[in-house]
Structures are given as C-alpha cells and as structure tokens.
Amino acid sequence: MKTLTFKIEIQASREKVWSVLWEEASYRKWTGVFCEGSYAISDWEEGGFVQFLTPNGEGMYSIIEKKTENEYMAFRHLNMMKNHEVLPVDTATQEWVGAMETYRLTASNGMTVLEATVDTTEKYIEHFNTTFSKALALIKELSEE
User: Fold this and answer.
1) Cross-referenced InterPro entries, in alphabetical order (predicted)?
2) What is the CATH number of the domain that holds 33?
3) Tens digits of per-residue pLDDT, 96-133?
4) What is the 3-state secondary structure (H, E, C) of the chain?
5) pTM score of the predicted model
6) Domain total for the chain?
C-alpha cells in the first residue's frame, strides 16, 4: 500500500474549513468529486463508525480512529459496503483493510493549510491523484465563500 498526500492553502479559518469538511451539505458537495451523490452516515465522534456511501449503497465502512476538533480527523477503513450492508472481508478487500485516510488543518501566515492523506493500492493511485486535487480545490472554494 502507498500513502498519498495532498495539500492546499485556504484563506479561511480552521473552524470554517472544518465545517466545510464535515457538515452534511458541504460534505456532499466536495465528495461528489469522487462519486456524484456521495454521502456519509456517522455521529462524527472519535471511536464512532462511518458509512461512506454512494447513492446505490456501495462504499466503505470505517472507524474514526482520532478526532481533534478543527485540527485532525483520521479514518481507518475496515470493509466494503454493498446495498447498505457491510460485507465480510474477502481476499479482494484483504489487501487494503486497515488503510488510513486523514485530514489535518494547520494555521500558517493567516491561512489554513489542509493536508489530506490516503492509503491506497496501485490500482487507485491515478484515480486519487486526480480526484483528491479536485476535491481539495472545491473545499477551498466552499471555505472561501
């Protein structure tokens, strides 16, 4: 597995960027870059579970491994979902079970720096290199409105 890192500077407070990242309406907008109509079901609390879903109920089942309000969110991906149901781990998913995805906000020269990391397999590197940059650009746009 390889860890990819993406960064962007945003002219907004960490609190504003945080709300764009995790509030439902804006979350749906920026994650639409990955799949139109994407959404999440979660209480967004550390130790809680997250269902990252497409409109047809496919996606990832994850746990919020670490959360520091307005600073850091870390997800550990546990399994796939299909038809809104968590699937058992099989040989196809075994290679990425435990993959991490993180979002870190830091203040720098009156700006907020958003750094996102994602663990991925070779198969998805090109996809994430394209989509994460677009997603971060949209987060910047929504945060600076």
Assistant:
1) START-like_dom_sf (IPR023393)
2) 3.30.530.20
3) 888 999 999 999 888 999 999 999 989 889 999 999 99
4) CEEEEEEEEECCCHHHHHHHHHCHHHHHHHHCCCCCCCEEEECCCCCCEEEEECCCCCEEEEEEEEEECCCEEEEEEEEEEECCEECCCCHHHHCCCCCEEEEEEEEECCEEEEEEEEEECHHHHHHHHHHHHHHHHHHHHHHCC
5) 0.93
6) 1
